[in-house]
Amino acid sequence: xxxxxxxxxxxxxxxxxxxxxxxxxxxxxxxxxxxxxxxxxxxxxxxxxxxxxxxxxxxxxxxxxxxxxxxxxxxxxxxxxxxxxxxxxxxxxxxxxxxxxxxxxxxxxxxxxxxxx
Length: 117
Fold this sequence. Notes:
By secondary structure, the chain is mostly beta strands.
């Protein structure tokens, strides 16, 4: 049991070193983002989903709690047109499972850009 406790304590330290938004500053949030040239989603934790578009990183998350949303899960997103918007629905599939979670909704999308020196 002791190694499990040590591993659990080490995870926050590892996560702090690999902050995907480090060195970036938030700009005004948007209700929708274009899916053209978009990479992602990358699920950071139960409250953070990132999309990358060139040098800009868009941060969103679920409205309220979203069952099973965690790193290494898969999002099944309902996309209408070429944009992803606030309140668009998605579901989560946990690795090894075939049945997705109930529907969740996106919050607004906040762009993060590198700090200019």
